[in-house]
Amino acid sequence: MSNKEVKAALKSARESIKNKEYKEALKHCKSVLKVEKNNYNAWVFIGLAASELDQPDQAQTAYRKAVELEPEQLLAWQGLANLYEKTDQWDFKVELPNIYQKLVELYASSDKNKCYEVIKKLSDIYQSDKEHLKHVQLKEEEAADKKELVQLLGQMTPLFTDCLQENELDSETQQHLITAFEKAIALMEPVPGEDHRKVSADFITCLSKLPQEEAKLKEACHSMMSLYPNQSYPVEVLCCQYLKTGNLTEDAVNCFSKLLDLAPNNGLGRLGLGTKALQEGRYADAIKDLEQGLKKMSSSTGWYSLAEAQFKTHKYSHSAASCSQGMSEKDPGLLALKGRAYINKGQTDEALKVQILLTKSILPTTTSELYDNVNAAKLDPHLGCVFRYLGHYYREVAKDYARAQGCYKKAFLLDNDDVESGAASVDLSMAQGDMDTALAILQSVIEKATPGSAKWAWMRQGLYYLKVGEHQKAIADLQAALRADPEDWVCWECLGEAYLNRRSFTAALKAFGKAHQLQPGSIYSVYQAAAIKQTLGKFKEAAAEYLLITAQQDYVPALKGLGECQLALAKILMEDCRDGGAIDLIQQAIHNLFRAAQLRPDLSCLWKLLGDACTAVRIVSPNRAQVLVPASLAGLDPNAQNPSLNQAQTLKVGESCYARALKLMPEVSSLWYDLGLNYYHQATSQPKLSEEDQNCLLKCVSSSQCLKKAIMMDSGNHSYWNALGVISMSKGLENYALAQHCFIKSIQAEPNNVVAWTNLGTLYLKKDNIELSHEAFKIAQSLEPLYVNCWIGQALIAERVGSYDTMDLFRHTTELSTHMEGVKGYAYWVCSTLLDESNRNSELYRYNIVQMNAISAAQVALSKYTERIQSDAEAFVMLGFLNEHLQLKRQALQAYQRAVELLQSPSEELNFSLGCHGRALCTSDQWDEAIQAYNSTPLQDLCDLVGLALAYCRAGLFSESSSAYERALAVASSEKEKAYILTALALLQHRQGNLDSAKTLLFKCSVLKEPIPESLLCLCALGLVHGDATLAAAAMTELLKQNPGRVQSVVEQRCLLTCTLLALQGNYSAVQREASRAVHSNPGNPSLWALLSRVVPKYYPRKANGGAVAGHVACLSSMTQGKRALLYSGVNQLASGRHSGEDKRKNALKTLQRAVLLCPDDPATWAGLMAACHTENTSCYLSGSPIANADFSLPVHAVDEIERPLAQTLEGWVLQQAVAGLMLEGRLEQAEALCTQVDHPAVMLSLRQVQCQRLLMDDGGTVLPEAVLEQLNNAVMMNPTNLGAWQWLAEVYRSQGLLLQAVMAYRQSLQLASQLGVHSCQVASLLRLALLALGPCMAGVPGNDWTSLVQEATTEVLKLGSSPVALLFQALLQYVTKMAARETRRSLEKLVYARSPDFPGTVAQVASWYLLRHLHAKNDEELLNVLLQHAKMNGDQRLLEFHSLLASSSV
Description:
Blueprint: H1 3-18, H2 22-35, H3 40-52, H4 56-69, H5 74-86, H6 90-108, H7 112-128, H8 132-141, H9 146-165, H10 171-187, H11 194-208, H12 214-227, H13 233-245, H14 250-262, H15 267-279, H16 283-296, H17 300-312, H18 316-325, H19 332-345, H20 348-361, H21 367-379, H22 384-396, H23 401-414, H24 419-431, H25 435-448, H26 455-468, H27 471-484, H28 489-501, H29 505-518, H30 523-535, H31 539-552, H32 556-575, H33 579-599, H34 604-615, E1 627-628, E2 644-645, H35 647-664, H36 669-684, H37 695-713, H38 718-729, H39 736-749, H40 754-766, H41 770-783, H42 788-801, H43 806-816, H44 820-835, H45 843-851, H46 854-868, H47 873-885, H48 889-902, H49 908-923, H50 927-935, H51 942-954, H52 958-971, H53 975-991, H54 995-1006, H55 1013-1025, H56 1029-1041, H57 1044-1048, H58 1051-1064, H59 1068-1081, H60 1086-1099, H61 1104-1117, H62 1119-1135, H63 1148-1158, H64 1163-1183, H65 1193-1200, H66 1208-1225, H67 1228-1237, H68 1241-1258, H69 1266-1277, H70 1283-1295, H71 1299-1316, H72 1319-1339, H73 1345-1360, H74 1364-1377, H75 1382-1392, H76 1401-1418, H77 1421-1434, H78 1437-1450
Antiparallel strand pairs: 1-2
Helix pairs in contact: 1-2, 1-3, 2-3, 3-4, 3-5, 4-5, 5-6, 6-7, 7-8, 8-9, 9-10, 10-11, 11-12, 11-13, 12-13, 13-14, 13-15, 14-15, 15-16, 15-17, 16-17, 17-18, 17-19, 18-19, 19-20, 21-22, 22-23, 23-24, 24-25, 25-26, 26-27, 26-28, 27-28, 28-29, 28-30, 29-30, 30-31, 30-32, 31-32, 32-33, ...
GO biological process, one term: RNA catabolic process
Keywords: Repeat, TPR repeat
Organism: Salarias fasciatus
């Protein structure tokens, strides 16, 4: 190649570099170098191209070659600088300053600006590397201003000072530091000034740490004192220097005095003056000054001086105490002085102890000191402590362990109580591996030891046994050591370790707990306790223990254990489909494990656990798998915000963690297995495999390769073969032959391998080999009956062959665990069975659905399924269907809405989902939305049309509803469907006020070939609503003629309408009998029990106890009916007068309190509670006991705060109850205040009642003025429908002697009760009227009017039903009019000797009194004896006493 060609090649290389074609540039340069090996430009171009191709070593070599060729040329040096700047290699960073130095030299003569730029870069390097002196030198070369130099010096001096504290500066650097301070002080302005004062103080502090700079220190202190005379710091430093050197000259005394002038409470000045006084022999002054100084600051030198002064004044006790105060540093001088004080005081034992301490503190460290100890041993060969110190010397200083062992043995032989020598000898023997000698010494000590002694020997022997694995002996020895010292926490830890090695986890836990109690700062005991709890499966408790450790320090084993526990807890939550909580725990586990991995990146197990944690997200729903991971772990800048990764990204991070673990330990087969599974989960996490995206297929291939690698390393591991088989079956590979081979190999490696058998069965099932699949699943079931997958396989086989056991098998899978396939299969079969109405009465239906509680079980399982798999529209439809059956309206609506959202494209599934969605909207009273949903369907299905018609009707669009029903009538295929539609149209016509049209349509329904009971029920109800008893009776008669099986479906409605018809006809006693008959015919129907409990107190209150029982039965049978039945039961208890005075547990108050708790939004329950409280108060009032339930404010306010508006009558009733309760207690003022506070029509009447009561009480029960009676009458007239008001007014008239007005009031209440159909109020009004008329009769008022009135009223009562009270009134009337008649006796005897359990005892007692008087008047001894015998049998003492009075009066 010619010179011209070389230039052309170099030009081509330059152009290639310019076009970023670096490989072409290298080719051109290499061609040049073949001709000219020393071509400078070629080497420079090679360096530049290699640098751009990320080949830093080749680039460096090329640049270095160019520099060797032309050292003064700039290009190569610039290239080197650029290369070193952009490459992050430590060796390049080291060389970079030298390159900059060379560039400074080259730029100095050619380009000043470039030179300054390089100097700036070099300055930054020096600053970052703390080479501040060079930095300052460069700045001076740049001619920087004073301010910048002062700033640099200010940055430099603290760093040097820190190094000085760590003794890292040599003498040269120390001089640099002093020079820096001097320059800074000289350059700093203003002087004096705050910055100058701080730097001067720092300079003095620095010099005080350099003993050789004493002269400069004094100079600096005097300089600062002259500039800042009020500053005490330089004076303090000088005083410290004088005290340290002990040279207390006159200047020192002046310095101490000046310090006290500046700071009178400064302890240093007092110590200086005290020390000077001690030197001059002024001991009293010395003691005074030193004590004052030591109160302000503690100093070992000060304590020594004080102890010496006290010793000189013969205060030996004080001297010893001062020595003890200053012995924190084990100063030998203090120890010696303390010993002398004890000797002079006569305390030789204490002096000996101090001598031992002094000996320890001056352990021989030199040869001369060793000779002194040897001579001491020769002088007294029986002094064991000397040999012990010799042993210490040989062990610690000379490192002659053989001689040290001999000395220890000699010392222990001379003194068997010398624990230190014995322990040292044993420890040294164990360290050298001479266990026999160590055990011999320990056993010799233990044999002689008494119980509770020789702790050191027991403990060391226990540790030996622990080390060799004889855990039982170790436990026994350590327990013996603890008997000697139960507070030794180290021994407790050792005992816990022994228990742990013996696998006695509970005992180990207690031992570590005791150790932690004794030493709360011990991390080891807490860690071991947490590890034990983790082993026992108490992950939550273990995690709490680990958190205690990690909160104090970054302890890697604790962080690892914490991550493992959190991962285990996450897996437990995922088994129950609680994915949200599981993701939180996985996130915490990742952070804790990564924290541990950052501390110990060399531990493969940490990276493996991190991979497990990241891979664990494969189970959860992709929507939930949003994991916040550390930025560094995700491959981002560590300073960046922690990213939130989705499921695929998190699995990818898990892949990198497994790769990191494999990099550390590539020979571990389980890591290859984990990596392979991670690849497989990454592939299966994708929605589906598409031809365009082959990423999933590549992941499957990589997974297969990793599993094959693991099998090559460990071919006997059955899990590896099984995993490879599963991967081979995956979509994309589908190598079924290999999969079968792998499953068989897995079974051969482990015959009891339930997973491999199940997977083999799945493979056969996929290939439609039912028999082999069944056999494989059967074997798996026999190996592990609780393994759910094999049961799912059998269920799928049963489903395929059409077996009746399919549903039962799927149900069994849901009982074993929550598996997605089993859950969906069971839900499907439950829904299919529910949709098939033809088998409702079959044994299979009753077993699968009713007995197995299938609807609730399937709903719970499917809720978990949809929580995890949120893209399955079919599952959401089934969930909505099950929720509808469970009356979970809101949940059903949400499920159907989700299904509609998932099914966007038009299809039959979408139309079905829309219809279900519309039905759920109707159930939730969202009529407009339901109309919109139904209109979104093709409206070809009968259910959709009927649902649309119902939605229109409820929305008030009656014409549209009629049109929809007519369209549905045209679509209906059967007579039954048409009957239902016609019934709906009839109801719609009645809603619009077309009564005749409604009747016509209902009659039309009844003449169809397949009439339905619902139409007759509607016809009957229509008659009852309009008071047409004939129509209602006729419809009911036709209903009873129908097939009993069809009528049975509407038995509740039929019973209710029958009872209503009987009440309308006035046959009240038959109401209760009809409800009782229905209950006896259908004892399992809770609605009928609730109906019976409801009608009893209203129409047959004498059976109220039975009504309470009926309500209780309904409450136990059904929660839906039970809430209301509980109220009915409480009302029955009120009707029967059952209060807490009779039964503390079963009374109206307790029952209605429960009702309020169950239904706090029901005003009826609160009204019942009010009535119960009133009953309790009345009972207490009558019995004379204190009233317990006097405060009615809570029920009143609770009723007022109910969201829905209360009826006016209910509000009035509540107010009347509250006022009546207050009046009953005599709290009339509060009752009147309550009436004035509330604005209600019933308030005026209540107010008048309270005012009337107060007026009667104030006037002593006198006659009320006519004006007052007029006001009361007007108040009652304002509430003409209030039955209680008329009866109360009648009582007021009666109390005033206005009997005719009272009769009129009672008749008014009777008329009102008859109009309202209130049976109990009719009876009450008639009985009160009869009682009112009976009074004049008993008083002998002439005339027949009152007698006729009694007879009339009681006769009407008996027409309404049996009434013992009415019979009593008739008997008393007979007694008054015809006392001696035989008919009178018969009437009274019927009441006295009645055996009915419902007969009131009060009636019998009253009748017996009058019968006694009748018989006594007739002097009939025989019948008298019968009556008296009956009274004795029943315990009627009052009748016997009355008989005695009558007998005595007749004598």
